[in-house]
Amino acid sequence: MINILSIIGYLVVVAYSVLMFWFLHSHFFFIVLIMLAAAPVLSIIGNFILRHFVSVEINRASDLYGNQDDETYFIIDVHNPSFLMSLDAKVHITVSNDFFGTVGEQIISVPVHARGGYTIKLPIIAHYPGVIKLEVKRIDIKDILGMFYLKLKAKTFAEAIIMPLRISDVSYDVVNFEQGMLESEESTKRGNDFSDVQEIREYIPGDKLMSIHWKLSAKRDILMVKDRVSMSDKQLVVLPELCNVDKEVLTQILAVTYTMIYQMISDKTTVRLMYFSINRYEYEDIRIDYPDELNDAFAKLFYEKTYEGADEAASHMSSVHPEMKAYIHVTSENGQAVIHIRENV
Which domains can be identified in the chain, with CATH numbers? Predict the structure, then answer.
């Protein structure tokens, strides 16, 4: 990429030096002309060499989990171990949120110091929650005379996970919410066993097959079962719809879900966050007892894809999870997030 103005300025200086040498026949202007003739060649060679030494690295300056509408910082380090330099390098930055489908681009001009480079501390304010991905795809490095840019491809990125706002106007009726509590059925899925082994005993007709301790049974040549004691007799199931018809409404759904679960676990209530994965066409089921687990659950949710149906997750619940009596459904109605207690029929 050529900088026309810089070239015109250089030619003006050369023309002035030629005229001065022509009229004055000065050795000084003769030396200046030699230097002017050599300068572009040296500048071009130096810029080609510099491009091989420059590299880019991105790191998070703040915690992995940030908050919506708060500043999240990234550190962009332009490394240059060589003795060459550039007064202007354009860093092309892309900021994206795949969960909401938003993309933004920015170009930042920085100097590249010899034996150092340059460090940028870039603040990002996310209007939507999700995984914010900051990516540098290329750098345009200007030569020392400023005549042209050389493109340097740089594929490096970093991510920050932005949690939804905890809003203050989420109110609920505890009595009604208890309708969404259900007796837990044991599950063979990893991470969904809400019980602990109390003892191992002989099999009694009527025991569940999933409770059989197969290794011990093989050793004793008799069926042995794991007698479990429930650690959480009841769980509150929350099912948000990841509906992308309107970004603001989806943001409200996430904020209501996040706030509601946070309030519940603060009251020592075990919560099961369930959501429908359109990629795997199955439900994700995550037990949440503590705030860190809540953040981890939403971080996993943000890598899912959204869908258009405002009732997509709820429509499959009765067929996939017939054991569930009722659950709390967070969806959209009339352009806003709403909460319903749904019976699983």
Answer: 1-163 (2.60.40.10), 174-194+231-343 (no CATH)
